[in-house]
Structures are given as C-alpha cells and as structure tokens.
Amino acid sequence: MDYVVLVAVACLFALVTGMNDGGALLATGLKLPTVRPATGILTLVVMVALVPLATYAVAQTFVHRLATFDGPGGRTAMTVAVLSALTVVTVLSARGRPTSLTLAIVGGLTGAGLGWGLPVSGSAVATVLAFGIAAPFVGGFLACGVTLLLFRWTTARGLWRWHWAGFLLQTVAYAANDGQKMLAVFMIALGFSGAPLPYTTLVAFLFGLGALYGLPKAGRTLGQEIIASRPLHGVSAELASGTAVICCAVLGMPVSMTQTVAGGLIGAGVAQGGGRVRWYAAVKIVVAWLLTLPASALLAGVVAYILSST
C-alpha cells in the first residue's frame, strides 16, 4: 500500500508540475504564430523525456545533495515533502499569487529531511538558494542586452526565427534543469538510479497532460500580468532564460524556469523603458516566491516530525 501511495504522489506531482510550468514556458511566445501551443507542448514532452538520458545532474542534486532519502523513513519523508510543496503552491495560487514549484519542493525536501532526522546538507541548501536567487537577475540582465540587440538588428520576419531558436533553447534548458524535479521524485519513490527511458517517458507524458490543462491560466500570468508584452520581449526572455538555466544545469544547480522567465520579461521591458513593466504584479509574485520555500519547509518539517515520533 505504501508503494502505491508513493507512486500516486509522484504521478500527481508530475501532473501539477505540467499545470504550473507548461503554460509559463509557452506564454512568452504566444503573440507570435511561430510555435503553436500544441506544437510547443509536444516539443516540451519530447525534451522532458529525452534530455535526462544525456544529463540528470539536477535530479541527483534533489535526491542526494539536499538530503539523504535512502535511509529508514526516507520515502515517507519524501511523500510529506511533495504533498507539503503542492499544498503551499495551491494555497498561494488560489490567493492569486502564482509561485515556483521548484522553490516549494526544495523547501519541502529540506524541511521533511530535518523533521524526520535525515542527513541534510546545509551548505548544499545554501548553494541552491544562492543560485535560485541569482537566476532571475541573471535572466533579466541577459534579456536586457538581448532586447537591445534584437531591436537594432532583427526584422519582424527574423524575429520568428529567433523565437524558434529561443523556444528550443528554453525547452532543452527546462528538461535539463527545472523539469528534473519530477524525475527526482520518481527516483526516490521507486528507488531507481539514473534516467531509464520508460520512467522519463512516463514523467513526460504526465507533464504533458498537466500542461494541456494548465496552459490558459499559467500562460496568462507571465504573458500578460508582469509586462505589457510584445513579441520582442517574449523572444528575448526565452533566449535569456534558456541560457541562464542551462548554465545552472551544467553545475547541477536546480533553478526555477518560471522565475528566470519572469526576470527575463522584466529585463526586456526595462530595456525599452521601465514603464512597460507592471511593477505591482512583479512585486506580488516576488512576495509569493519569498513565502514559498520557508512555508513549504516549515509545513513539511512539522508533519515529518510528528509522523516520525509516532
């Protein structure tokens, strides 16, 4: 029965990840006809299935570097971590504060590990947090420069080609980094190592289902609320966020693609005048980010401690 619950939680997490992340990844380019939503989701599914076959360093960070979940009670602690992360994200989203599921699962895994008495690496958690904080700023800085270059050197037709390049870069980056939190949960739940194709395919399929369901709402958040977005801004954000997230993946550091895309959109807007940025919406999202990790860690830690003590 415990095994069935663990697998069900892992599947639920992949579905919710698709709902939370899939639409956000497509939102930046919705004003260009180059990549249709169906094509975009299919591309994401293929990348999520195949890229981990080449590299799964970020999944290893989730499984082994933050806390050790292969000891007694490790799988139960993982279940607590995932459910706590989903609870926090659901509550914040219901209150109109969309947030990062990556931050939530980092907090959940850390809190559950501490609450259950599992080994937790403070230095690893601090390093992941540092990269997570830096990623949106790096994305914004890169997007500012990319926007200025594209505005000067690219025609409207050329922007279509850059959109394809940016979208493909972004999907590869997501599959190599942020998307591997789903694989990590399955690795802990089922006790396998590496990235076997049957498991990455299952993760990708569930992610795709969630993305189809969550596209309208998630896409609206990034595509309209943060910035009065034009196609140039979306393409710049794609290129910038993809570059920043891939660099973090090379180092095995999990960062949030949605955070980095948001930073990229703000940077692209600032490049053409800060008045394009809806700062009240940006502040609302940043506040949600700041709440997400400690809330997930606290909830998971308390629940894990109670369960471990019974």
Strand content: under 5%
Largest sheet at a glance?
none
List SSEs in N-to-C order. HHHHHHHHHHHH
Number of helices: 12
Binned, the helix content reads over 70%
Shape: globular
End-to-end CA span: 19 Å
Radius of gyration: 18 Å
Count of β-strands? 0
Mean pLDDT: 87
SSE-based structural type: mainly alpha
- The parts where pLDDT drops under 50 for at least 5 residues are none
Key terms for this structure?
single chain; 310 residues; globular
Concise overview:
With 310 residues, the chain is mostly helical.
Structure, explained:
The chain is mainly alpha-helical and 310 residues long. 79% of the residues lie in helices and 0% in strands. It has twelve helices and no strands. It has helices spanning 2-27, 37-50, 57-65, 74-94, 101-116, 122-153, 156-176, 180-190, 197-225, 231-250, 257-271, 279-309. The longest helix is centred in the middle third of the chain and has 32 residues, at 122-153. It is globular.
